[in-house]
Amino acid sequence: MNALQQAHWCAHYALEKKAQDVCILHLTPLSSLTDYLILATGTSDRHVQAIAESIRLDLKQHHQISPLAIEGMEEGRWVLLDYGDLMVHVFQQTVRSFYDLEGLWAEAKRIEPAPPQA
């Protein structure tokens, strides 16, 4: 599975948990840090944690892919799942607005989540 397909799966799993404002940013032409950022918003600490945990578990169970690192799961305000070629950020709305990753990466191509292909 390539990084874009994996990004669509992450977005799909986030949307299954009722994440809001899910988007994929393509960073390959702009950064060597990662190829894609997936951004999603949860409505509470527990919701952010549930979205992030669903992505982690579903990628592991269905695709045998585990994150290289996880940050912020305990607090649930901003969880980062680092998969190398892509990074998943699940925020509460106030945190997402404050850090404004969409603004930071305004030049990145925005990809709307699509149903993933098996």
UniProtKB/TrEMBL annotation:
It is found in: Cytoplasm. InterPro entries: Iojap/RsfS/C7orf30, NT_sf. SUPFAM superfamilies: Nucleotidyltransferase. GO terms for biological process: cytosolic ribosome assembly; negative regulation of ribosome biogenesis; negative regulation of translation. It comes from the Bacteria. GO terms for molecular function: ribosomal large subunit binding. GO terms for cellular component: cytoplasm. Keywords: Cytoplasm, Repressor, Translation regulation. NCBIfam families: rsfS_iojap_ybeB. Belongs to the Iojap/RsfS family. Functions as a ribosomal silencing factor. Interacts with ribosomal protein uL14 (rplN), blocking formation of intersubunit bridge B8. Prevents association of the 30S and 50S ribosomal subunits and the formation of functional ribosomes, thus repressing translation. Interacts with ribosomal protein uL14 (rplN). This is Ribosomal silencing factor RsfS. The lineage of its organism: Bacteria, Pseudomonadati, Thermodesulfobacteriota, Desulfuromonadia, Desulfuromonadales.
